[in-house]
Amino acid sequence: MGALLMVTPNSIETPNDGFLNVQALDPSIIVDLKYATPNNFTGSRIYDFNTAIARAGTVRKLTQASHLLKQQGFRLKIWDAYRPVSAQQKLFDVTPDPTWVAQPDPNFSHQKGVTFDLTLCELDGTEIPMQSGFDDFSEKATRHYRRKPYQEHNYRLLDTAMRQAGFVGYENEWWDYRDTDMDTYGPAQADPDDYQLS
Predict the structure, then answer these.
(1) pTM of this prediction?
(2) Is the four-CA dihedral 89, 93, 94, 100 of positive or negative sign?
(3) Which of 139, 152, 171, 173 is catalytic?
(4) Quick one: pLDDT at residue 1?
(5) Is 173 a catalytic residue?
(6) From 3.30.460.10, 3.30.1380.10, 3.40.720.10, 3.30.1330.50, which CATH number describes the 5-191 domain?
(7) Which sites are catalytic (predicted)?
(8) Under a CB-based contact definition with an 8 Å cutoff, are residues 140 and 132 in contact?
(9) How far from 147 is each of 76, 82, 143, 152, 158, CA to CA, in Å?
């Protein structure tokens, strides 16, 4: 395993290696980090920051997806982005089932900052009905689930924009999208509070 890169706003190796606040390039993206509140499957607050960050190259791709969706009258809402290894450990301690919760690993996509958990909203911020809620550990969460027609329509809107922007969806979670370039990024740590917008 390679050395862990410590990244701060002033120590970006290349334009894509550093982290960015997801709202830095597109303030219209809504941030509602579920693990910063007890409103998640653990019933506890998993981390103490409210700023969604990811690798700069990944954020740029997200901005492309956001632009495509805004042209159709929708906005993105981020439920989770960069997730420290310590936070992943807390999640795994509650649900030690790798089908739904990955084991803590600095090379895991959330820990590298190249994955978003997200959904689709109206321009006023109202969430669009999807096939399940966030962190639904059932077949309803999977991409092969037989959706109702309106759910299929909404899913396709989100999925098409994310794929066109350079993301691939995780099979077991319709809300999980990973940068197609994720394997080019190594482990890294960052403090999301360092990336708050003034």
Answers:
(1) 0.90
(2) positive
(3) 173
(4) 36
(5) yes
(6) 3.30.1380.10
(7) 173
(8) yes
(9) 20, 29, 9, 5, 14
